[in-house]
Amino acid sequence: MSDLTLRLEAGQVLGLLGVNGAGKSTTLAMVAGALRPDRGAIRLQGRDFLEQPELARQAIGWLPEAAPLWPELTVREHLEAHGRLRGIAGVRLDEARDAVLERLELKNLSRRLAGVLSQGQRQRLGLACAMLHRPALLVLDEPANALDPVQVVALRALLRELADAGTAVILSTHQLTEVTAVCDRVAILHEGALRHDAPLPADQHAALEKNFFDIAMAGRAQAA
Amino acid sequence: MTLFAVTRLELRRLFVRPLGWIIAALALAELGWRFALLLQIFLLNQVRLAALPDGPGYTDLVAVRLYSSFITGSPLPFGMIELALLLVPLLTMSTLASERSAGTLPLLFSTGLSSSRILLGKYLAVLIWLALWLLLALAIPVSLAHGVTLDWGKLAAATLGTFLALAVLGAIGVACSAFASHSAVAAVAALMISLALNCINLGAQLAGINNGFINWLAMSTHQETLLRGLVSSADVVWFLLAITVALALGTQRLAADKERD
């Protein structure tokens, strides 16, 4: 990644677009605190969390690509482990766990081992873990992967609901329709650099598609 | 504290995996069988031993010999430490290697925990598991305490020595798991390092080398003193040093994961 500057307000949903290898997942991993950048700063509510990593614990929720899980733990145990790792316990943890189980329709799977869940169920569990502690910033890497069309619509509704409640969301995806459906702003990455960062235009899909392909094809022509 | 959240998570993973239970069951069955044989040998020689002015008793010939065969010169193979050399690498192999292969390691990083706290949390879980194993093994000779004369001081020193040896093996296992991408590689590496550390002096002696430094380097040298009932701070420091070095190397490797993509 090089010279990437992004700013996100509370309640905003930012769509991060880019071809494979553009640096989307790397950017999100750095924002989530899983990867340390060589230089620069990542500020959250004005405070640099590279200096104070414990800020990330409470304020950021992250769903990495393909929702990595511990196969030997149940859905319920996953949520409890994530809650404790994020610093919540006791009654607060019980309430938060039950709320996300209900919201993501995982209640009847709560005693099932993560290792036997379908891809879609794994993705929902990963999302539940990310939003369990009600973070100020939700970082989602391809959250609609493996979800069926009904679940995709439900996910869009959930993201809008979280944004309306003041949560900032960064959403990485390959699907342009996904961005136009839920995002207020779009950023396009190409070869590790930010090529476009603007609110979504009024004619949305067509303009976004043109922008995206202009950037991607220009990069390929340059490489050729 | 989130360090204990890591410990709790790792303990849960250790206890739900069948491997942990199989290791514990096999090891305790072997130790029970070993205890019965050691007791039988002791009872056969009891009258002769009683005639000796400073003859060894139940503690020396049964209780302490349960802990080690190699060091105590027991006629029966596989005391607890020899078993641990083989089994602890199996127990620890997945602690970090499986997190890396399953992609859950970045999730732990994203909780704001430092590499050292993640590693320490994992190590504490392994240590708790090993302490429980040791307590169960200790219960076997102590179960006859009402009928025999136990040298509690000597048994306590030997138990401390065994615990410290298990702690070193656990630290080596966790460190190897931090370096490996696959659990099997971690297990093999931990086994080789543990065996080398335990027997390096024996190998040197077989090659005709009797070097003070090599003797000092070997874990068995320091265990031997403790199993004889002598607690020396120099030996305890050796164990603590070995644990610290293993955990520090593991932490370094884990920290490098956060720096690379």
Automatic annotation (TrEMBL), chain B:
Keyword Magnesium: no
ABC-2 type transporter transmembrane domain mapped to chain residues: 83-217
Keywords assigned: Membrane, Transmembrane, Transmembrane helix
Domain of life of the source: Bacteria
Compartment(s): Membrane
InterPro entries: ABC2_TM (IPR013525)
Keyword presence, Acyltransferase: no
Membrane topology of the entry: Multi-pass membrane protein
Residue ranges crossing the lipid bilayer per the database entry: 21-44, 64-91, 123-144, 156-180, 187-209, 229-250
PANTHER family named among the record's database cross-references: ABC TRANSPORTER PERMEASE (PTHR43471)
Protein name as it appears in the record: ABC-2 type transporter transmembrane domain-containing protein
